[in-house]
Amino acid sequence: MKRICPKFFCLVALTGTLLGVVASVQAIDYVSVADVTAILYDANSTRAKKLFVVSRYTPLEKVVSLANWIKVRDRHGTMAWIERRALSDKNYVVVTVPLAAVRQAPEASSPVLFQVSQNVAMESLGINGGGWIKARHQDGSIGYMKSIDVWGAE
Question: Terminus-to-terminus CA distance in the chain, angstroms?
């Protein structure tokens, strides 16, 4: 029986670690539904099985991009295909907590401007490195929300 050098195991472990670090550095890319409604399919064809119908402004994580189709993941982790023409590059987030506070400034002590119910989509206007996201409500009101209260932003 041939003996394997312990250095080999160290090299394999180091390679695996480096691959994990590189994979985690990749930015997550989000898109949102532009049409009033759009269909999610189980394959990249309109002849494929229709899985769900999603509404305008629904944020989706882009997983694979083809010429006319995008493979996406929704906030529940479901993977599906959607036609590229049904999407917008405009970023939206959806509230994931029962009631999210929208504040005047990106600080917990800042006054609450308004509150947003769960499953409401808000336009993302940018991410603050301190765990806050600037967002616009459909009525035009703008404020800051905790990024952990929404899905669809990095």
Answer: 50
Contacts of 127 (CB under 8 A, 6+ apart): 133, 134, 147, 153, 154
Q: What is the pTM of this model?
A: 0.78
The reply to whether domains 1-90 and 92-149 share a CATH topology is yes
Fold of the domain built from segment(s) 92-149: SH3 type barrels. (2.30.30)
Task: Give the tens place of pLDDT for each residue, 19-78.
Answer: 444 444 567 899 999 999 999 999 999 999 999 999 999 999 999 999 999 999 999 999
* Domain edges within the chain: 1-90, 92-149
CATH code matching the domain that covers 1-90, chosen among 2.30.30.40, 1.10.274.10, 3.40.630.30, 3.30.9.10? 2.30.30.40
DSSP calls for 34-76:
-SSEEEEESSSSTTSPEEEEEETT-EEEEEEE-SSEEEEE-TT
Q: How many residues does the chain have?
A: 154
pLDDT in tens, 119-145: 999 999 998 878 999 999 999 999 999
